Amino acid sequence: MPRVRIPPAELSSPPPAGYRRPVATFRLQGSKVLAVDVTGDAVRAKNGSMVAYEGRMAFKKMSGGGEGLRGMVTRRLTGEQMEVMEVRGQGTCYFADRASDVTVLALHGDKLCVEASNLLCSDGGLRTGTTFTGLRGGAGGTGLFTTTVEGSGQVAITSDGPAVVLRVTPRYPLSVDPGAYVAHQGDLRQSFQSGVTFRTLLGEGGGEAFQIRFEGDGLVYVQPSERNTVGGDV
Amino acid sequence: MNASAVHDPSTLPSDDNVNPYTFCVDLKGSRWFLQKGKMIAYYGDVSFQGVGHGALDRLVRTSFHSPMHAGDWVVAEGSGKMLLADRAFDVNSYDLDEGNLTVRSGNLLAFEPSLSLKQSIVPGFLTLIGTGTFVAASNGPVVFMEPPIRVDPQALVGWADCPSPCHHYDHAYLSGVLGGLRALTGIGGASGEEHQFEFVGAGTVLLQSSEALLPERGTGTVPHEPGVPGGGAPHPGHGSGQGSHGSAPRLPGQLGDLQRRFGL
């Protein structure tokens, strides 16, 4: 089948040499386990996702997702709670979550939006926060808020089944089922598409009544499985 | 494998798998039947309409003959590339050439309208007849077997060209009251494999490599007619036609099907 491979360097490489801070390198051990090599630096990972480690590691629970008091309050208020631990040490640490598939991606100063439950691990130098998603989250059954990751470094996200990475360009907008959406990165506008007509009310709906439409320039990560959504069977 | 391939409409395959769990349908002004909620993303201009939409009457007349399942299916129409997936199950496409294939209703994701869909006589299964492509899901890769073969009911995905799918019970059910009780209650040890589906004759049987089933879609009931299998349980006192020897109303406390095992 025709398939263009982006050289791995573009997607998941550690930040360029000359970077002062020691940087953790993320790699995949199989498709469901993430291995992170750390040399004295720190990564943030979902609480309790460590499955094994080699070397010396210290695990520290970070209240409120490591975003300080303000982050803690915001997360409590928005329901986008994230149990995060900081992993620091020398060696290799392995992370996994419910045998879900892991995708490693690199941020170069751009922003990634991901559900808190799908965020497995991020470089210690990245900033995380919460943002309002509008109707998209409401229909996706994932809440009205989502987690953002900004900065430069590597991030690992989880998905039910290997995620498909879809590129959005101004020429090719993309529509995604809210239940299959995992994350997106880049400069994307999202709008909410609804195909609800009077037929839906008569019980003859199209079955795909709600979609998120992405326009702009960026990447969208989609999982080959659907969460139960409010609009799922309409 | 790292998901390092970034796809856009020009690199997505045309009517082929993107990865073992995702299938890409290339719509060029054509139509596809698709089970509700199996579309995960699409590029381009695609619309989804429920079966029963007025404009689709002709299409439905020629290729959709299952009133029971009509509520679960939609027609995708337009141009663009559409990705299908289901609960991270393996997804495969199959080409039928003037053939017929019967598949578990929950496993069928989509089919071309050049095929026609009918309900199988075996409850919970759908039969596709004609020429064209369809997409089905399975938990683990599909294994193709030649009859004669006996298969575990949970591992069965479907079959092609086989004239005789039937139930097979192991001999133990005959061996007295204790055998019946054992099979019924599991006390004293039941292997859980006393019941199989048996296929003989020419054809192909499709099996999945696990016993996890896709949840059955709520399909309603077939018309309540004499001679239609699965047409609802015969109601006590209403025993018209269903039970061949006039099923007597069941007394409270009566042991289910044990009576039949002993020919009572």
UniProtKB/TrEMBL annotation, chain A:
It holds the Pfam family AIM24. Transmembrane segments: none annotated. InterPro entries: AIM24, AIM24_sf, Trp_RNA-bd_attenuator-like_dom. This is AIM24 family protein. It comes from Streptomyces roseolilacinus.
TrEMBL record, chain B:
Pfam families: AIM24. It comes from the Bacteria. Residues 216-264 are annotated as: Disordered. Residues 228-244 have a biased composition (Gly residues). Residues 218-227 have a biased composition (Low complexity). This is Ser or Arg-related nuclear matrix protein.
